[in-house]
Amino acid sequence: MAIWWAGSVMVIGCTRWTWKRCTYIGSDCSETWPNATMEEFEPIPRICHVILAVYDPDPDRPKYSPPNHYRLNRNDAVKRVTYEETEGHSPPYIIYIDHEYREIVLAIPGLNLVRKSHYKILLDNKLGNGGFRLNPDYLIKRVTYEQTQGNAPPYIIYVDHDHSEIVLAIRGLNLAKESDYKLLLNNRIGMQMFDGGYVHHGLLKSAIWLLNEESETLKRIWEENGRSYKMVFAGHSLGSGVASLLTVIVVNHRDRLGGIPRNLVRCYAVAPARCMSLNLAVKYADVIYSVVLQDDFLPRTATPLEDIFKSIFCLPCLLFLVCLRDTFIPEGRKLRDPRRLYAPGRMYHIVERKFCRCGRYPPEVRTAIPVEGRFEHIVLSCNATSDHAIIWIERESEKALQRLKEDSTETITSAPKVQKFERLHTIEKEHKDALERAVSLNIPHAASLGEEAESPGQNSVDQSQDVGDEETNAQKTSTRNSDARTNWNELVQRLFERNESGRLLLKSQVPETL
């Protein structure tokens, strides 16, 4: 009888756990967060467009359609002609009657690279004008994998004169590039300490290399535009980690970019990677903004990035095992682990699906600077990987922005300038409260806003935390004084060496056993 009762209790317990896990949805992570305002969310779709441009080899002919593309009414399509029907004489086309605008439209798509008969004829007309709202004339620099030599993912530098921004956008992981895997594998739990916390070693080295390569270019552009433009670092997935750590370095070494004020530095981490410890994630929430779409798996799992992408082809299995493991780890233990990495900064969560509902709903955006429950639960969802795609994040963020604009016009109760000032005050208060909350929870190395202001690391002296040699860093990090400082040039000498042509190259890679 006792065995029967014990078995029954176990079955009930397992059933309850399974039910809670299977009914946990992405929107539960932010159900208590307030909604974002139109003014603070407005840059995010635009930044997504710029990040998407990194994926396009030719900005004049982008391969993605505009986010607010026109939607046809199927009932008004008079005729649709396929490749088989044209017999290679023309691309497929449709004839469409637009009753709303009193137009008869004949629409023809661009080049299909699979169709050999059309390849040469349509080579210069891959797509029509449109695509991103990105002016090719403002594209200052495009850097490819060959030019970075594996030190960083590809990136672009773009000057948005319409919004007074200088944007450095970094692409995400490319599964076909070995250099991206090497960057991810160059890490180990507790290996790299920086600025009083822990960070991903490989991403930090990539960020340092990127700053050394482009600091003079960014400084020149900023000074040529009146020293008033915002400096925006943006990235997706792998690139978000590099952009976030690059922002941390720039904020502490603003003289590298001509003494740019902290309030002119911004980072947008789209589908963010866990790249820094909790104290740093909260500390830099005033300059780093992370954007998460519903069930995205990457910000939610503390499993090292290298393990995630080594298991990318069996990701559902990995997510289930991580979900099972994290269930039995107390929340307090997670918070007290200084080596545990988190998604950085203020979080913007785009929610578009509901429990036991089919289809997508008009997206809403929630925002907060969470200390506890910072996307700590894996969501067992068929959308966990698709929500990580930059194209979906860009589309849903555009929809969310349009909805915010509509709501703001309907609920205006005070002058726009007054509303903006009040929101800025609220954002500052939320950051201060988050810092104090981190201190009250005894988060390792956490400091309140007042303590940060008094820290010697915030002065104008060009200083940085000692990251040490690669071979000894992993062994000495646990005992190194978090206040140890070193000169920037010494930091660069420790991590890089110059070849015969004078280019900076990473020193020997971490052994494969890491």
Textual characterization of the structure:
The chain folds into 2 domains: 21-60 and 132-495, Alpha/Beta hydrolase fold, catalytic domain (Rossmann fold, 3-Layer(aba) Sandwich); 74-119, no CATH class. 38% of the residues lie in helices and 17% in strands. It contains 18 helices and 19 strands. The radius of gyration is 25 Å and the shape is globular. The N and C termini lie far apart (51 Å). The model is unreliable at 118-131, 456-486 and 509-514 (pLDDT under 50).
Strand and helix map with partners:
Elements: H1 2-23, H2 38-41, H3 43-54, E1 77-81, H4 83-86, E2 93-98, E3 103-107, H5 116-119, E4 139-143, H6 145-148, E5 155-160, E6 165-170, H7 178-185, E7 192-194, E8 197-199, H8 201-224, E9 230-236, H9 238-252, E10 265-270, E11 276-277, H10 278-283, E12 288-293, H11 305-310, H12 315-327, H13 331-336, E13 341-342, E14 346-351, E15 364-368, H14 390-410, H15 416-440, H16 449-454, E16 463-465, H17 470-476, E17 485-487, H18 488-495, E18 496-498, E19 504-506
Parallel strand pairs: 6-9, 9-10, 10-12, 12-14
Antiparallel strand pairs: 1-2, 2-3, 4-5, 5-6, 7-8, 11-13, 14-15, 16-17, 18-19
Helix pairs in contact: 3-14, 8-9
GO molecular function: hydrolase activity
Keywords: Hydrolase
InterPro entries: AB_hydrolase_fold, Fungal_lipase-type, Mono/diacylglycerol_lipase_N
